[in-house]
Amino acid sequence: MEIFSENKQIGDYIVLHCLKETQETRTWSAKQVSVGRAVLIDELKQAYAGSSQSFLADVRAKAAVEHPLVGSIYEASTDRGHCFCAYELLPGDTVAQLVQSQTKFKAQRVCHLLRRIAEANIYHESRKNSTSPLGPDDIHIDSQGIIRLKNLVIHGERAQDQSIRDILRLGSFFQALIDPNHPGTTRCLTLLTWMRGEDTEYYLTWAQIRDYCEQIEQQLTEPSEIQVLPTTAIPIQPKSSLLWVWLTLAVLLIGGAIAFAITRKNAATRIQEAKLAWIEIPTGTYSTLNGFDVNIVDFSISSQEVSIGEYAKFLKTLDLLSKESNDHVFNHPEQPKEKTNHKPTHWDDLLEAAIKSKPWNNININLNSPVVGVDWWDAYAYAKWKKCVLPTQEQWLAALVSKTKEYSTIPVSAWPPAGATPDRTTNGIIAMAGSVAEWTAEPRVTPTNPLGKPQWVIMGGSYLKPGKGSLSMEWTDDRSARRPDLGFRICQSN
Predict the structure, then answer these.
(1) Which CATH number is correct for 278-493, 2.40.50.100, 3.90.1580.10, 3.50.30.10, 3.90.226.10?
(2) What is the pLDDT of residues 333-358, one digit of tens each?
(3) Are 153 and 162 in contact (CB under 8 A)?
């Protein structure tokens, strides 16, 4: 005996048509009488009534989701022997329907859709939500281009490889939506290739996909007008070693669906997402090392120097932009013409050693070690990519002395500093005394030659040149200077 029959009212719902059936459940279109809205209902078949607790556990997990891109759960009930849940009928067509109808989108729109999907999945990751596999029937796009996702959350522990599983699938079936006759196609296709795990040394993360898509959208919107506050105006996953080797993906193409398998050997350690922490520096008057007081408006500075892993993501973005000759968009207007890229000195060797946690220049490093071998132009471009800036000399010093009385005695750390290094300020800024020296944003007058031309300032000691630790300062006319102990950190307005 069926729990529901068509056009029968159960509680506040009139059940209309059966849309889908699995071994244990049926999905119905229905109308909620009290508010007159169309809904969907998942019904647990009577033969599987013993699974009601598991069914309702999944419903409760879905109901806990609060994200604007993810469909809502309205009600769950076991009243009168009926076990069902009612949930939102998402507007628009599914990706599967759009592919079947040969609907195409510009690359900019595709990247926008991918970015929104990534944002929803970052939400699931942050809350450790376990989800069913993401497929083309689970993504809805309405006539205005607004995207919504089916609520795929299920009860249970999130699998370690769940994000990789969904990214690989998304990279496969989304390709059929791209209109090849518009700018940005190459970039978008390259990103999808990376999402499928091809032509890259590591599996992409949802955060990386979000960032890449944002960059492509930005470039296709106004490629020559990317804005960043001038420093003078500042208001002061390498592929994981996996137990599985074969991943089978369903690839939906125009005209039908075909299946293929993607094989991956045991891979090298993947480039992990760097956790960038920000330290707020309050508005106030701060003393410089030459005895002057400067007024600083509140800002935030990165707690650590930019790492090798973080910088590698920047270079990956430039690789993507270079497909259409847009890898110059983050360059400073005065950057020398002969400087054609932002790869640090001996970058390939440095990155390989960091990925494998092996020695470089006789020092054991990893992806969290500060990047070195970068010049001022590199540091500027990276900061602009992050929508940040390099700190000025005054901001750097304000960050050093803020809440820290004995800053002159902060011990100099090695490169890279250990997580428990004493080379930190009271408010948690790491490696201002040692590790690597750091580029700053603007030239300043050298105290020993106050009538001379301002020069570019390098702040802090390093593992090779400890000097006076956090009080060390250097001046140079050469913004192209590179050293194995020279890096940078970034800051942003509050």
Answers:
(1) 3.90.1580.10
(2) 999 999 999 999 999 999 999 999 99
(3) no
